Amino acid sequence: MADASLQPSRSRDLDKLLLRPGNLVGPRFEPGPEMRDDLQTYARVLVVGAGGLGCELLKDLALTGFRNLEVIDMDRIEVTNLNRQFLFRLEDVGKPKAEVAAKRVMERISGVNIVPHFCRIEEKDISFYNDFNIIALGLDSIEARSYINAVACSFLEYDSDNNPREETIKPMVDGGTEGFKGHARVILPGITPCFECTIWLFPPQVKFPLCTLAETPRTAAHCIEYAHLIKWNEAHGGTAFDPDNPKHMKWVYDEALKRAELFGIPGVTYSLTQGVVKNIIPAIASTNAIISAACALETLKIATECSKTLSNYLTYNGTEGVHTKVTDFERDKECLVCGPGVLIEVEPSVTLQKFIDLLEEHPKLRLSRASVSHRGKNLYMQAPLVLEEMTRSNLGLNLFDLMGKLSKDIVHVNGTTTKNDQKITCLRKLSVVFRGVDGVTDMDTAGGA
Predict the structure, then answer these.
(1) pLDDT at residue number 203
(2) Are 44 and 189 found together in one domain?
(3) Which of 375, 329, 377 is CA-nearest to residue 197?
(4) How far apart are CA 285 and CA 293, in angstroms?
(5) Which of 112, 174, 285, 436 has its CA 20 to 30 A from that of 267?
(6) Interior CA angle at 313 toward 309 and 314, to 5°?
(7) How many domains is the chain partitioned into structurally?
(8) Are residues 262 and 298 in the same domain?
(9) Is residue 211 annotated as part of the catalytic site, yes or no?
């Protein structure tokens, strides 16, 4: 039997980073086994998404030394996932991705504890996200990234000089892939650009004229969008299409196939139907692995300060050879998400219901169906029904009283707004000022209520 002392240490490569000093380390980095032990004991990382990139992230983070991981994903495993989402098997089809991914990693890597959450990211209270040291994103949706970005930025507080308080910064590491291309970025709210600061990096989604869909379809995508955007409403008036409902997707596929046969258009498949309707970007396993490795390394650097972090956006292109580039983007100081908060000035007598109504009229916000929270307490929640019933009585009370009679403080609002002609869920941080309280007087609020 081989001498155990001669066996290579599982943390050998990690020890090279954490057990010795370096020229690029952070100011609080102290090399030694305590650093490695603290990483395994205290660091808590949330992985958002358990798809192609999320599977790689869970595996890489566990192998990097993180022991306390959680993963959240709302999807179930489909056959089309199996070519690149390596943690899943054929017998897993139909099961929640988060639960199977967590189970598989824990089976292969001893000592790691991964807690899965099979739900929408919006279903978790904001306080849930505040329990993590770092949030790692493996998403394929702009809307989901925007939401998590807003949640992380909602914890950010500024001092009297409008400098971010370090202890309130919630670091995020975001990865994304598209075929042979990918990106990895580090987001430190208040310091680096947040996701909303650089939303312009993402090209607008392809849209087809309705007249083309209805009268002169030329491609398989035209047939699919006809079934999705026109035929569904005709056949299911009043029932919203759910892209995550397999029965809904199958109906659109069947109708698109009929449309394609009518016009002699080939190429309509169930996989393509999913891709068009859900705007799914083709994914390649090798790209996911490369981007995940970059994200895992940045997560380690943030947690330990064993080296300087990426500054702040890495692009990868493996189409012809391998090309990488790092770009240092600047933060938008007027950003509504990572800034000090949209300033709202109201009378102390305004009720919570009137305040919610004002949010819908505010030119910078235009928030409908708003839920309001203050310092972790739910003042009013639109959903679920049990919380709506519990907080409904607050609607007639003065906001000033509900906020503890403070002349100025931050509230968080979760509601819906319109972006690119689509209604999306968003979270906004508001700096609420009450007129005439403790010397507060009218001020220029740049569109305040």
Answers:
(1) 67
(2) yes
(3) 329
(4) 12
(5) 285
(6) 95
(7) 3
(8) no
(9) yes
Q: What is the reported pLDDT for 216?
A: 85
Give me the pLDDT at residue 201, please: 82
Q: How many CB atoms lie within 10 A of CB 437?
A: 15
pLDDT of 383: 77
Q: Which domain holds residue 318?
A: 9-203+283-327
For residue 175, the cross-strand partners are 184
pLDDT at res. 9: 63
Tokens representing 404 are: 């503890």
The predicted structure's pLDDT at residue 8? 55
Q: Is 147 exposed, middle or buried (0-12, 13-18, 19+ CB in 10 A)?
A: buried
Among the listed residues 55, 153, 197, 211, the single catalytic one is: 211
Please state whether the predicted TM-score (pTM) of the whole model is above 0.70.
yes
Q: Are 228 and 245 in contact (CB under 8 A)?
A: no
Burial category of 19 from C-beta neighbours within 10 Å (exposed 0-12, middle 13-18, buried 19 and up): middle
Side-chain-side CA neighbours of residue 149 (13 Å): 32
Quick one: 147 and 32 in the same domain?
Answer: yes
Phi, psi of 339, rounded to the nearest 5 degrees:
-80, -175
For residues 269 and 363, membership in a common domain is answered with no
Which CA distances in Å does 116 have to 69, 77, 328, 344, 396?
9, 14, 34, 38, 39
Instruction: Reduce the secondary structure of the chain to three states and give it as a string.
Output: CCCHHHCCCCCHHHHHHHCCCCCCCCCCCCCCHHHHHHHHHHCEEEEECCCHHHHHHHHHHHHHCCCEEEEEECCECCHHHCCCCCCCCHHHCCCEHHHHHHHHHHHHCCCCEEEEEECCHHHCCHHHHHCCCEEEECCCCHHHHHHHHHHHHHCCCECCCCCECHHHCCCEEEEEEEECEEEEEEECCCCCCCCHHHHHHCCCCCCCCHHHHHHCCCCHHHHHHHHHHHHHHHHCCCCCCCCCCHHHHHHHHHHHHHHHHHHCCCCCCHHHHHHHHCCCCCECHHHHHHHHHHHHHHHHHHHHCCCCCCCCEEEEECCCCCEEEEECCCCCCCCCCCCCCEEEEECCCCEHHHHHHHHHHCCCCCCEEEEEEECCEEEECCCCHHHHHHHHHHHHCEHHHHCCCCCEEEEEEEEEEEECCEEEEEEEEEEEEECCCCCCCCCCCCCCC
Structure tokens at 353: 């219901």
The segments of the chain whose pLDDT lies below 50 read 1-7, 439-449
- What CATH number corresponds to the domain at position 258? 1.10.10.520
pLDDT at position 239: 83
CATH number of residue 392's parent domain = 3.10.290.20
